[in-house]
Specification:
By secondary structure, the protein is an alpha/beta fold. It is built from twelve helices and nine strands.
């Protein structure tokens, strides 16, 4: 049986040391392969993660406000002359909140993914070690918009392949899917365009992360059945991706649209019990490869027991998956 995956994504500096300490509290030998990362690449963070025996997985995002990658290529002149100059500048519409450019969407998506790889290449050349990338995210609009699929599929291709002209090799990563996208995206048989999108996802994905984010209320069995909808579809239509599925949760204390969590303001012991029940029920509904926790910031960070419990839930999940 393949080892379970445990993933922690998006955390503040204040949470980082606490997360490492709680992961270290797991009895040896560890049951899961642990991956941890947040937005951007940090050499001090990389060194601490490696020293803890974990795998560093920095995050790259589709949203325009999350980095400077859309402004233009950052390459040496000798590198730039090997590439198409038409895509060297700013991605169209990047000065606005628009996620996708108005034209040549697939080509610009590939370029953006390749710019992520340019940054990885520079960091590695500077001595920063990391294991795998994460992409945040396949938006819900991809379920209904070919334009969004073209741009997003291009990003995944650029991330996966990099720039062969600069000797990049293929690399897969964690691909995060919104619940709407995973539940409502047409199957590959719908059209050649949709089939190509799924091919890009398949090529890029080491593990597919489904943003399930249940509400911590009511029946755990009903919640697990409802939130497993996207995973169940993958198992039926795209079995290879279904076997690489990671169920994403959240600590649950930070109120935000779409993140679910402890919306009824229950005490910590309720949250612990409910989440453990959900983990067990999800395994019974559709067995994932692993579990993840997203967003150790603001209310999810204090008091520190909230961090401890959320990390401990991944220890619990790995134990259930390994048994």
């Amino acid at each position: 049986m393949a080892r379970p995956v445990a993933l922690i994504t998006n955390f503040s500096k204040d949470a980082f040391a606490r997360i490492l300490a709680q992961i270290a509290a797991e009895p040896e030998p560890r049951r899961a392969d642990w991956y941890i990362g947040t937005y951007g690449i940090s050499k001090p963070m990389a060194e601490k993660i490696a020293a803890a025996g974990l795998r560093y997985a920095p995050v790259f995002a589709i949203q325009p406000h999350t980095g400077k990658f859309r402004a233009g290529r950052r390459l040496r002149k000798a590198e730039g002359v090997l590439l198409d100059p038409d895509f060297a500048g700013a991605i169209p519409a990047s000065g606005s909140p628009a996620v996708i450019p108005p034209r040549k969407r697939r080509a610009w998506g590939i370029e953006l993914g390749q710019r992520f790889r340019d940054y990885m290449r520079r960091q590695r050349a500077a001595g920063v070690q990391f294991d795998v990338w994460q992409f945040d995210e396949i938006l819900g609009r991809c379920a209904t918009s070919a334009a969004y699929r073209q741009f997003t599929g291009g990003i995944l291709r650029g991330l996966a392949e990099g720039r062969p002209e600069l000797s990049d090799r293929a690399e897969q990563g964690f691909v995060w899917f919104s619940f709407k996208a995973l539940s409502e995206l047409p199957s590959p048989a719908f059209s050649p365009e949709v089939a190509r999108f799924w091919e890009e996802v398949e090529r890029a994905t080491l593990f597919l992360v489904g943003e399930e984010y249940p509400l911590f209320r009511g029946s755990v069995t009903a919640a697990a059945r409802d939130r497993a909808e996207g995973h169940t579809r993958l198992v039926g239509d795209l079995r290879g991706l279904g076997r690489r599925y990671v169920c994403a949760m959240t600590p649950g204390w930070k109120p935000a649209p779409g993140l679910g969590g402890n919306v009824d303001h229950k005490p910590l012991d309720f949250v612990t019990s409910w989440r453990q029940g959900f983990i067990e029920a999800r395994i019974a509904s559709a067995r994932p490869r692993g579990y993840g926790q997203f967003s150790f910031t603001k209310e999810n960070l204090r008091p520190s027991e909230r961090v401890d419990e959320a990390v401990a839930s991944l220890h619990f999940a790995s134990e259930q998956l390994a048994s």
